[in-house]
Design brief:
Elements lengths: L18 H9 L6 E4 L6 E10 L2 E10 L2 E8 L11 H16 L6 E8 L2 H15 L4 E9 L7 E9 L5
Parallel strand pairs: 4-5
Antiparallel strand pairs: 1-2, 2-3, 3-4, 5-7, 6-7
């Protein structure tokens, strides 16, 4: 078999992975993380932390109050985008934390908040959220962008509902 022959994930002529394969593999490799406060399925606030790069800490906050779960993340205490090229793996890690949390708890509603600086990044976030929700008991109901002020990036809010609560 010649290089790339019979394989759709590798370009036949260059032997390089195609973009879809690259992105899929990227999103399947979350960073290692640890619980700083609380843990999976616990009521109240749980905080998880990971370091994609030296001197950079991503903090993921998961707040479970009754049947509502709120998830957000910051980089070094800020919602600002870092521009360091790790957005795919960072979001993969955030979604991995959410998935593991949902293995221990089944809230009726989930609100996931992420910073975004462009419609393209918002679309990537939307695709990732939909991808991670496949095969779960949840579905994405609504997405909206929120402008904080001219100094901060926009936020994209994902509203996710348990399928038993969808009308």
């Amino acid at each position: 078999m010649e290089l790339g022959e019979g394989r759709h994930d590798v370009d036949k002529y260059t032997g390089m992975k195609n973009f879809l394969t690259y992105i899929t593999e990227l999103f399947d490799r979350p960073f290692s993380y640890r619980a700083l406060v609380g843990g999976f399925g616990e009521s109240g606030q749980s905080i998880f932390v990971f370091e994609p790069e030296r001197n950079q800490k991503i903090r993921v906050s998961v707040e479970l109050f009754g049947e509502k779960l709120y998830l957000s993340f910051t980089s070094d205490g800020s919602l600002d985008l870092t521009g360091k090229g790790n957005a795919g793996r960072i979001l993969a890690t955030v979604m991995d934390i959410l998935q593991k949390f949902l293995e221990h708890s089944t809230p009726d509603e989930i609100t996931f908040i992420a910073p975004t600086d462009s419609p393209a990044r918002a679309r990537v976030y939307e695709r990732m959220v939909k991808r991670y929700l496949q095969g779960t008991e949840y579905e994405l109901m609504k997405i909206h962008r929120k402008k904080i002020d001219h100094l901060n990036p926009d936020e994209i809010w994902f509203h996710i509902s348990h399928k038993d609560n969808v009308f």
